[in-house]
Amino acid sequence: MNIKNASLISAGAAGALALAFTMGAGSVAVPNPSTAPGGGSYAAGSNPAGSNPSDARRTAIVVATEKAAPSVVSVTVRRSAVVAYGNPFFQDPFFDFFGPQYRRKEMSSLGSGVIVSKDGNVLTNSHVVGGGAGEDGGQLEGITVTLPDGRQFPAKLVGADNANDLAVVRIQGVSDLPVASIQERPDNLIGEWVVAIGNPYGYLIGDTKPTVTVGVISAVNRTFSSTSDIHYHNMIQTDASINPGNSGGALINADGKLIGINTFIFTGGGQSQGSIGLGFAIPIQKAKLVMDELIKYGRIREFTTGIYADPNMDQTRPGVAIANLDPGSPGSKAGLKTGDIIYEVAGKRINTLQDVQDVFKLFQVGESVEILYLRGQEKRKTSILLEEKPKRRNLY
Asked: Which one, 108, 132, 243, 315, has least CB within 10 Å?
């Protein structure tokens, strides 16, 4: 087997759906379970208005919403950029001598977030904080987090991972923050009821309390790659309406557990920008992995498999042939050997080297990736635990 110019299968925080981050319609206001009218507080499940709702009205959805809504916040981001503009007094070509005119433009955007720790860490989308804005996105001037009870706090950007469309901002110096209860295991059920909670339309509705929409989990393990270098892996699909400003908000189950971060929808196309029952949330398990990386390292570390693919593989046969392995690498530890043919990675059939590279872009350090391969005529299965790519040593 020719190992010259073999391609190393590795990846970092890079990724690739022109998707709609503006969402559909149909949300209703949710009472804040921690604050009663007039400023008094009351326990979740009580009714400060004095009426006695029947047990039929106090459904699992109502109780779940009361548990989770206090931790869902509004995230306001302020940015500035220097832009060129036309001066009405300089329309005459004679004044071209003076060159373009510039001014600083202030911009703001609104989204949602979820408080996930007592020390003030808030999970949201990278596109909410402008992490993927590029040159025209301007300079970050400040972030404000508004709680459902109306309290506002300045927050700092801990880190953003554009490839996975996730970001962490932190409220500092506050001890009594409401924290979401997280579903630790990815045991989501297709058809189970879920609630999308967020702050659609920001302050246009003049209320800091979040809103909810209800639906079911339509599918799981949906994977997309977008034209803006974003990879969405194992997404939760729901028909609960997700609206403008809901990005970064919570998707919870009937136990009130946070199962995902609401991210985008498909729209009807043309003039229709509303929900058509196709909303997607990043699973909370993936979001936590990204959050931990950003908090600890300030970035997403690059990984390596230590596997080199044969560039002269047989094009008539599906799969990618292993040309070589680094000793002690994740691929070697997983039991793979030179000559093995990888034909499936993380449930995706592999036909070309590009296929396997695209799949690995969906993962990060610390995750385990299942691989199906052929050794001779025998089908085998293994899992690779991805490790951080070693830093190159300078040779003198």
From this structure: 315
